[in-house]
Amino acid sequence: MKYKLKNIVNNIKKNGYIILPNLISKNKCEKYKKILNKNYEMYKDNYCSIKKEGLANKQDEKVVFNLHNKNLKFFELFQHKKVLDILDVLLKEGSYKKSEPYYLNNISARCPLKGNKGQLIHIDSNLAGVNYNIIVNVMWLLDDFNEKNGSTYIVPKSHLVKKYANNNKKIENKILIKAKKGSVLIFNANLWHGGSEKKKPTISLGYNIGLRKMVC
Ligand SMILES: O=C(O)CCC(=O)C(=O)O
Ligand SMILES: [Fe+2]
Prior knowledge:
Helix 1 crosses helix 4. The two termini are about 35 Å apart. It is built from four helices and nine strands. The protein is about 20% helix and about 20% strand. The protein has helices at about 5-15, 25-45, 75-80, 80-90; strands at about 15-20, 60-65, 100-110, 135-140, 150-155, 175, 185-190, 195, 210-215. The strands form two sheets. The chain has a six-stranded antiparallel beta sheet. By secondary structure, the chain is α+β, with helices and mostly antiparallel strands. The site of fe (ii) ion has 3 residues, from loops. 2-oxoglutaric acid (AKG) binds near residues 110, 124, 152, 193 and 195.
């Protein structure tokens, strides 16, 4: 597949997201999952089963935080050229001479567990309806994403809405991401999104790695 930077950027600006397939091999996905599971076992008692309200409740999911200090191999993801080319346009727009740097803000991996009921629809920028794309989420799919395994819901074009999702009402136009492992989902952190219910424990959604890159 040929990627045209301009088309990709325009797509993200218009719809709030894009999925790029086959950015890393399936073999690499398995290797990353192995590293993540090892780290999960090492650190889970410190931080991975926090019983809190809403999104901060990590009881039904495995999470590994701060991947930059877990294994240097993750830098291959953080610095992936195709992704950085996109972020260079999105995150520098509006800055002085389109040249201000941006930084890696949150690098964690998440795996919903059996029985996980899904996440509320939310945004990750904490500011609904801003003029520029101030945070971009880059989510690496280390397993296939489908309707059975806790994939991610998104609401296309909702990054342009100047309010937060009301989870007490039916959220219209919500779609589920369906993509193969090795793909990357890139989205404006203002896009409404959330995890879906994990129905079949036998089909695993390993970890997705979410990188958040912000402007300074
Ligand atoms: O794993 C997902 O499907 C989404 C995770 C997410 O949105 C978050 O943790 O903020
Ligand atoms: Fe999120």
